[in-house]
Amino acid sequence: MSQSEATGETKEFLFKILVVGDIGTGKTSIIKRYVHNIFSYFYRSTIGVDFALKVLQWEQNIVVRVQLWDIAGQERFGNMTRVYYKDAVGAMVVFDVTRTSTFEAVSKWKSDIDSKVRLPGDAMIPVVLLANKCDLSKDGLVRNAAQMDKYCEEKGFIGWFETSAKENVNIDKACRALVAKILENDVSNNKRDAKATVVVDVKESPAESSGCC
Fold this sequence. Notes:
By secondary structure, the protein is an alpha/beta fold. Helix content is 34%, strand content 23%.
């Protein structure tokens, strides 16, 4: 039993999650399916960044608000991505299983995230890889699950999922896996912070002290 369950208190979390990938990979469709459970063939290409919010009753006494940032595919190496990535605690990189070129861009997206946003202690944020449009014919490495597992391990992804926004395949599962990892990191960071102590020499005058509270 968690402390929140024992005390009857509700703990609330707000997590910023990036959704990135080349243009046309289905990022907006995935978000619309996850947040509103809808699908359309006629979404316009995202310009800059868009936002969506999903509220999860994670456990009886835990509420998680997931803020999804839909980053436009053409923004990968723009100056604005550093601003968009700020304060993110997790990410999804999306590619289209029917277009090998979008998979080839995955490592560049992952490197861009790793270079621009970090967790406390300089740890990389958890990232899942979504092989989207799995209801269509697959092309390239995604046809070999073992090779995909190896690829994700080498690139530092926490895992990968075949997804389909159209058929609603694995989207909830992938997002839940990412949120679970973010919560795990949050607990670990809180434990580390609780153990941290600041030693202040009380003999120093306030003007001389370099310690901070």
